TrEMBL record:
GO terms assigned for molecular function: DNA binding
Residue intervals of the Bacteriophage CI repressor C-terminal domain: 84-181
Species: Klebsiella michiganensis
Designated name of the protein: Phage repressor protein CI
Domain (Bacteriophage CI repressor N-terminal) ranges: 9-71
Phylogenetic placement of the source organism: Bacteria, Pseudomonadati, Pseudomonadota, Gammaproteobacteria, Enterobacterales
Biological process (GO), any one: protein complex oligomerization
Length: 185
């Protein structure tokens, strides 16, 4: 691969990756003069630093930006989903970055997903629910967050288990935050 040449094609691919219509728009975005870009374009000089910036900002495939071969977007990006990550420690849920999941592992008909790590167990949760049904849920009981199994009982009561003791209460007595859609041990 000769990085001394190929600037013209790389610049054209950057314009496409950003979704701009003109090279002037690329200049404005990168904060460079039109003459600087024109010089690199006319001399076919490869703009490595701009290509790297473009790949990071647009998540375009670096190999495509550099050579024009392959797909404009990363195939990894198309097959993965980035979820916000939370750690559940001593009843407190704290945001801690993000995790990337292969889409084949995630349920297809749920949205608003996030990842929770609790001890040695890991959960993918969804805030997208309308009714509380039997299953595993992320709940807040007296300002303490936990993962619990909920079983519906008659008259809007629930049986809450999974902690040190199981108990029954009215559904409104606890705050149900999210459903657990995937448990990973």
């Amino acid at each position: 691969m000769n990085l001394e040449k190929g600037g013209r094609g790389a610049i054209e691919r950057m314009v496409e990756a950003y979704g701009f219509k003109t090279r002037q728009a690329l200049c404005d975005h990168l904060g460079i003069s039109k003459s600087t870009l024109a010089t690199r374009y006319m001399r076919d000089s490869f703009p490595a630093e701009w290509v790297i910036q473009c790949a990071l900002e647009t998540e375009s495939d670096l190999a495509w930006l550099v050579t024009g071969t392959g797909r404009p977007t990363s195939s990894q990006k198309e097959n993965t989903t980035i979820l916000p990550r939370f750690d559940l420690v001593e009843g407190v849920l704290s945001e801690n970055g993000a995790v990337t999941f292969d889409n084949s592992l995630l349920p297809t008909k749920v949205s608003r997903l996030f990842y929770v790590r609790h001890g040695h167990d890991n959960y993918v949760c969804s805030k997208d629910f309308t009714n509380v049904r039997d299953g595993i849920w992320l709940v807040n009981i007296d300002n303490e967050v936990s993962i619990r199994e909920i079983t519906r009982l008659p008259k809007n009561k629930i049986l809450v288990s999974g902690g040190s003791k199981e108990f029954d209460c009215m559904l409104d007595d606890i705050e149900v935050t999210a459903s657990v859609v995937l448990k990973i041990k």
